[in-house]
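Worked Example 4.2. Consider the chain below.
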Amino acid sequence: MRTNMDYSKAEQWILGEKAFDSSSLGKCEAVMCLGNGYMGMRSATEERYLHEKRNFFIAGTFNQFDENEVTELPNAADLIGMEFKVNGHRFDLEKGEVREYYRQLNLKTGELTRTVYWVSPAGDEVEVEFKRIVSMHRLHILAQMVTWKPLNCDIELEVTAGIDGQLTNSGSQHFSEGQKRLYDKTFMQYLAKTSETGIDFVFNTGLKFYNGADKPEVQSKIIMERRQILSEYKLKAAQGKTSTIEKISNAHTSRDKEKEGMTLDMIREIALDDVKKAYELGYKYLAAESAEEWENLVWNTTPVHITTKESRDQLAVRFAQYHLYVMTPRHDNRMHVGAKGLSGEGYKGHTFWDTDIFVLPYFTYTAPDIARTLEEYRYLSLPGAHEKAKENGYEGAMFPWESAWLDDGEVTPVWGAADIITGLPTKIWSGFKEQHISSDVVYGVWQYYMMTGDQEFMDSCGYELMLDTAKFWSSRLEWDESDQMYHINDVVGPDEYKERIDDNAFTNYMAHWNIRKAMEYYRELKSDKSEIFDRLNEKLDLDHAYTQWQERLDKIYLPQPREEDLVLPQNKTYLGLDEIDLTKYKNQEKIGSLFDDYNLEQVNQMQITKQADVMILFFLMEDMFSLDVKKANWEYYEPRTLHDSSLSLSTHSVLASDMGEKELAYSLFRRACNIDMGENMKSSDPGIHAASIAGIWQSAVYGFGGVRMLNGELRINPNLPDAWEAFEFTLMWKGQKLQVRVDQQSLSVENMSKESAVEIELLGNKYTILDKQIIKL
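Applying the procedure from the previous section yields the following structure tokens:
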């Protein structure tokens, strides 16, 4: 990605490209996507091109095409497409001549802008500017403005625009066509219904034209085709004069929480009234209103400032914050964050462990109200977790590896990419065997509770989640007479290059932690919260479960570091597997190039790691292992890790900071930033990497800022890279807003709320801060 502005100035907010390349459209479509958590839209151009991917998603509207496919977010109607003809010649950047081109996303305002100086095949020169927003203030509204300026002659401009419902999810059509209608000779409306889940979608759009304060004479014609309602417009544009087109659109669905119980006619009326109001306000008003919402919601509330000559670093953290808000459905606790956010069809809009371990902490530390919404989703999806446990012969809550709608249960596809050896699709075992997700979910619950002190959430949701998952793990344990221990066999850990292995260190330790925490909360509830205890005991049979936990906890096999080198076995067999020279793959340009030479069955038999299980364990359970153990395992596993998971680099960056390896940590941080922001023009085609983007913020705040929650206490132990002169960020801790500033000479923490004192460990010493504390480094 050519992030080529002068970042030392205001352009620290700008992500831009200077050249149009139709073979690499996916990059900008994804990384410059627009959204507000309710809806998300890839930033395809108005005019169409062969290799584009036009995606428009509305959170939570999952549908299953047929029994051979899993449920996914359906690709809704295209509301932004516009075709233009200049004196009879189609506006097409692959034809004629492009003399100037620039496209940019302003992270501060959420506005996408594209400027083109184009010469038609007939020699007609025009300057065109495209602007677009998805409103952060009005969840259902998106708006466009296009200005045309003929440079060397008068032109006749033909515009075709409307609503196109012919889109699919790579061939799967999720909608049945509904009614089409034109209102007031201006507003086009298109209805559609998902085929399996029966969700009604209502789309509206209207166009207006003006030349400065004047309204030009425009000829229009309505067209209704299969799954389309369009209008054709013709107008004259004089040389040197600017003609402007505004297109204001919206989308509403019957899944919207506030529309539960409404008839389709009621929704249509609400949606039409909504678009008419936005239409009257116009693009400039809507864009300014949305920018103000971005300022109030994000940039003024949780600013991050980095003083450095490497100003791309500042851009990267803002890029992360932007996307975290674009992808997160903060408006509805029945929905969660997908692995690609709302930026592409990758992973079908499904939620993974990524959000609990990587995305959730950002909001827990900066916007606890949003974090609670995400946690409530996990509680509301317990029926699906119960169903999965039951289907697999277990008790309690066994969370799906991939989640969609609340009661969908497991939605991981069974078959994946081609096996280069057999020529058959590769079986995806994660949905069957990657079970650490259940403890990951409650780790996020526990983190949220420790950081916020939200007792009401814990009473109504959190305790039940902790206890229900512990029941699953207890039933999942397998007794081995030979060593008189409980084992967890036949699983996939975070390192998905090792399938169906026994005693995965990450899985075993996290399961042990889950049960231990459940036992603590059982005793706490029984002693201090009898009403809650009685309710949950009746629901979950806690007395019986606790008896099992007591008997089994200390007999769960937890692999230990080897005496000779302190290496913790990733699983039962890893340290005995074959080793190969990984230099070629460590220096790869394309992720997953290993599978050009080997299939997954072969990789399973080699000491090759996608992301290091043990490193992630140290990241989450850092106080369980000494620094010597961490360093020894880093030296062993990092050379064997390809970082083919987008989650890997940020985790390793944080750990490198913890170990005092500042330059290594900084190098890994920069590499993590480049996963989506870098020059690889194919890395983001399926969509952005949601958890990796959250990892950019974690690398900065957890790693360089040294922020960590340990056993319910806040610790700040900064490790600022030499390239950064100063680093400022804000945190929420148990209802108090903290302003943290680190430079090469000092650390300061200011309690901005000043409502109550905050206990913090700074550089190894405990402080009680009501106002401000400054410490020399």
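The longest strand covers residues 200-210. Residues 505-528 form the longest helix (24 residues). Compare this with Example 4.1 before moving on.
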